[in-house]
Hints:
Number of helices: 3
Shape: globular
Structural class: alpha+beta
Strand order of the largest sheet: 3-11-10-5-6
Bound molecules: copper (II) ion
Number of domains: 1
Radius of gyration: 18 Å
Helix content: 10-25%
Largest sheet: 5 strands, mixed
CATH topology: Coagulation Factor XIII, Chain A, domain 1
Amino acid sequence: MVSASALTIIASTLVSQVVAHGYVPQIKIGSQYIPGWNVNTDGYTTPQPIRVVRATKPDSGFISDPSSGDITCSIGNSKLPPGPITATVAAGQTVTMLWNSWPIGHFGPVLNYLAKCPGECSSWKGDSGTPWFKIQQDVYANSEWASDTLAKNNATYVVKIPKNIAPGNYLLRHENLALHGGANLGGAQFYPVCVQLTITGGGSLNPSGLGFPGAYKATDPGIHFNPYQGEAANKAYIPPGGAVYPGLQF
Ligand SMILES: [Cu+2]
């Protein structure tokens, strides 16, 4: 016997997986809420609103090819002009990503990268060379994938900005990597979101080394991965993109 409420939960889970996986319509820095990218309205408004979160078009769907230009920041990243604004955050502070929702069961890690924009972020897509470096990752803890932890935490995730990186304009690449289909080659789903930041204070560290595209391959063991093998396999899982850049201070 399955209760009506259980059926409702199952039905709404299926709907959310088909219709909208989630997007980031708002971020928070300190006590300030800043509009992100609302896939339901921002892409259909003329003139297109200028946001600190880069647009994703046409929807909040996933990217399945990690060698695609979309892997940098979002679907359509390779075509869309970024908006010429940034959110200001001090080195050592946090940026909270407020997803509209995130489905339970999109098992996988949450990965976070920065890249320093050569001048203004608004004229830079970040999709060539190796300007990126990993600053934070949450993988699997207490028998739970980080994506489920994010979902249960009211679809929020807090990114810490390193204390000792050089001040300047940066892209923050925050990503849910969903592996519920990852047992099949090409079945992983990437949901990157980029935020244009101006980081103040800080130190003199200028890390780099990763490219998007470039850092991920479909055959990486952290991408072609079956998350249904049980606790031991999940604990041994190593996400793509390598370790957090050494020497960062938080
Ligand atoms: Cu999804």
